[in-house]
Design goal:
The protein is of the alpha+beta class. Helix content is about 30%, strand content about 40%. It has a domain of about 90 residues: Beta Barrel (OB fold (Dihydrolipoamide Acetyltransferase, E2P)), CATH 2.40.50. The strands form 2 sheets. It has a 5-stranded mixed β-barrel with strand order 3-4-5-8-7. A two-stranded antiparallel sheet has the order 1-2. The radius of gyration is 23 Å and the shape is elongated.
């Protein structure tokens, strides 16, 4: 029982220390009317930003791990939409090279984690396109981001 209490205390101290280090918590003091006041404030926005960043990092690691496990059946690339209509997608990759993709008949398209259509892909949206490595290399999945900072899924 003592070990459990010690472990809980250790975890609590670690979280508080991390909170001060990351700027989630701040301590301030002032003196007025001969009294000293100490305040502890919590920066909820900073905490939420760090939480989203951590989730995105973990999902990115999951995406990389899934690609390694999947081997050569799928390949994905990140880029930006130039144009999209019908079964065609034009995008630029991270290096700015323009690429054209033919969309598979059963392509799955999401915009900020919600199902959408090719017509919803707007110029300038960040996208992750997944294609089959086997011929004809059609795009089977497109994840688009308009409002979110990070891709919803790992792959």
């Amino acid at each position: 029982m003592k070990r459990l209490l010690f472990l809980i205390l250790l975890i609590g101290v670690g979280i508080i220390g991390l909170g001060f280090y990351r700027g989630w918590f701040q301590v301030g003091s002032d003196s007025a009317d001969g009294k000293s006041n100490v305040t502890l404030s919590v920066n909820k926005d900073k905490f939420q930003d760090d939480k989203k960043e951590a989730v995105a990092d973990v999902q990115g690691l999951g995406h990389k791990a899934k690609e390694k496990v999947a081997g050569s059946s799928e390949k994905s690339m990140d880029g930006v939409v130039v144009s999209a209509s019908g079964d065609k997608l034009t995008m630029t990759d991270k290096e700015g090279k323009e690429l054209r993709q033919t969309l598979a008949a059963n392509v799955k398209i999401t915009c900020d984690g919600k199902t959408c259509a090719t017509a919803d892909l707007k110029q300038g949206m960040r996208i992750r396109v997944t294609t089959e490595n086997a011929e004809p290399h059609n795009a089977t999945r497109i994840e688009a981001l308009d409002n979110d900072r990070a891709f919803e899924k790992g792959a």
